[in-house]
Amino acid sequence: MAALWMARCGVNARIIDTNITKTYRGRADGLQPRTTEILASFGIAKDILETACSVHESTFWADDGEGGIQHVVRVSEWSPDLGRYPLITTCQGRVERCMLDGMKHYNNLEVERGVKAVDLEVDESTVEDLDAFPIAVTVHHLPEEELLEASTHQTIPQPGDFNYEAEDDAYRTRHLSGKEGSNETIRAKYVIGADGARS
Question: 113, 175 in Cβ contact below 8 A?
Answer without folding.
Answer: yes
